[in-house]
Specification:
Blueprint lengths: L2 H15 L24 E6 L2 H12 L6 E6 L9 H11 L4 E5 L3 H6 L3 E2 L24 H6 L1 E2 L2 E2 L2 E2 L6 E4 L1 H4 L2 H5 L3 H10 L4 E2 L7 H12 L18 H14 L10 H9 L5 E4 L15 E3 L9 H10 L12 E6 L5 H11 L6 H6 L19 H10 L14 H16 L5 H18 L2 H11 L5
Parallel strand pairs: 1-2, 1-3, 9-10
Antiparallel strand pairs: 3-12, 4-12, 5-6, 7-12, 8-10, 8-11
Helix pairs in contact: 9-10, 9-16, 16-17
């Protein structure tokens, strides 16, 4: 169903629900009555925890009279997820007005007809929106690309972490920090660190780290052949990247792997001299007093390292992949209060009054406010660095496929077997390619081809 059809349907919903919103009128941000409020609760599905739901409920109640009916959806464990986990989310989303879910589930949410396109363009803040103020940045280019599907804006991001190369104070002023521009440099740093250099390889995170390495290392077709959807991950260049990752991870003292947040805290506390990660806990991090430097992930090109090292140093190269588990909010196709739900998404994405939400929920981060609300506590320097990185529009999608959780589970498991076990990089990549090909057939190859092309904006 195209955007025009959705908009026509939305107009009908407004008429039925009595939700009017005249774009020619500019409501006062400070007035609760300016927002679209009805006695019918907005139905919200949130993938997360009870404490996050309570924080959202309390924060919203302080700025709006619109009642909420919040349903908690069980978080999907991407290290061992099955179709039944995702199925529960799709069932709940079919009875909602707004759905908040992990980014990598977007393609399947669209395939299951659980989402409609956003009603308004989020490229710039619209002054007619109730919760948007002059203190809010326009949506960064990387986030806009990542939350679009088939050329249409499908979601608003609740932040958007990117992994950074973290250098502790023992290296921040030395030559080592400045020379880490390629993955080969990073490996040498890991060798010199005596086990005190780490990258995310814990269950659920190893697959994402491999994808982040691939995005920064290869400029070839991303993951699948566009014509046949044949997995490319067993090709030599992909295998070489996993070989690099395996060699580096095996040098770390954390034998079972760490999460991005654990690595960030380890570097901040001086337990690690360097690593790859980002802050995930508001109560720890910068408060330790350790000075950290933040740079983009190292880069390399297999077989042409010297030439690429020079180019990488200029900052001219580099693709991004957003955190596949980043929370995003969308209008549900079953939305019965479209105008009110649209305003709720404005608020949820960093609008005025959402500051307590971003201060108290670790999984989200404010990259659009200019008030500094997202800069307090842990990660002050990280947030500033992140905002600069998000201007890059060269973004590739995570596993935006039907059954994404199962594709990711296979990836994460095989990568962990390689970096923490005896499985060779080639054997691990062969296993992933074979399993992905089987999943293509299980979920219908033609449907998967269309979903993958739409995720990249190539098909409508």
């Amino acid at each position: 169903m195209n955007r025009r059809t959705w908009l026509a349907g939305a107009s009908s919903l407004l008429a039925v629900a009595g939700c009017t919103h005249d774009p020619t009128e500019t409501p006062s941000v400070d007035s609760k009555s300016a927002s679209v409020v009805s006695g019918v609760p907005l139905r919200i599905v949130w993938v997360g925890s009870d404490s996050e739901v309570e924080t959202m409920r309390r924060t919203w109640r302080s700025i709006s009279e619109q009642p909420l009916d919040i349903r908690l959806a069980k978080p999907i464990d991407f290290s061992k997820a099955g179709s039944s986990d995702a199925g529960a989310l799709f069932e709940q989303a079919g009875k909602a007005d707004v759905v908040v879910y992990p980014l990598t589930m977007m393609a399947e949410m669209v395939h299951q007809e659980r989402l409609m396109p956003l009603l308004s363009d989020r490229i710039t803040a619209d002054e007619s929106d109730v919760f948007v103020t002059s203190g809010r940045r326009s949506m960064p280019a990387a986030l806009k690309v990542a939350t679009s599907f088939a050329g249409e804006s499908r979601a608003v991001p609740l932040g958007g972490h990117l992994p950074a190369l973290l250098i502790g104070e023992t290296l921040a002023s030395g030559e080592a920090a400045e020379s880490v521009t390629t993955w080969a440099d990073y490996y040498e740093l890991a060798k010199r660190s005596d086990g005190k250099c780490a990258e995310p390889s814990a269950a659920g995170w190893a697959g994402a780290t491999f994808l982040w390495r691939l995005a920064s290392s290869l400029d070839t077709t991303w993951l699948f052949d566009r014509e046949t959807l044949k997995p490319l991950i067993d090709q030599p260049d992909y295998v070489a990247v996993l070989e690099q990752m395996s060699q580096s991870v095996k040098l770390s003292s954390a034998t079972d792997g760490r999460t991005p947040g654990q690595i960030y805290q380890g570097v901040a506390k001086g337990e690690l001299v360097a690593g790859i990660g980002f802050p995930t806990n508001r109560s720890e991090g910068d408060e330790t007093g350790t000075q950290l430097s933040f740079t983009a992930l190292p880069s390399s090109r297999i077989g042409n390292e010297d030439e690429f090292s020079t180019l990488a140093a200029t900052g001219d190269l580099g693709r991004l992949m957003m955190n596949p588990f980043m929370l995003v909010g969308s209008l549900a196709s079953s939305c019965r209060q479209t105008a009110a739900a649209d305003q709720f998404l404005d608020w949820l994405a960093g609008g005025e009054g959402s500051e307590p939400l971003y201060r108290n929920i670790d999984s989200i981060i404010d990259v659009q406010s200019t008030s500094g609300s997202g800069d307090s506590g842990a990660g002050n320097g990280y947030v500033k660095w992140l905002r600069s990185q998000l201007s890059n529009p060269n973004v590739v999608p995570p596993l935006q496929l039907i059954g994404a959780s199962e594709y990711y589970m296979v990836l994460d498991e095989a990568v962990r077997e390689c970096v923490h076990g005896p499985v060779s990089p080639q054997a691990a990549c062969d296993k992933i390619a074979k399993a992905w090909s089987s999943l293509h057939q299980r979920f219908n190859l033609a449907s998967q081809q269309r979903a993958w092309l739409r995720a990249q904006g190539i098909a409508s």
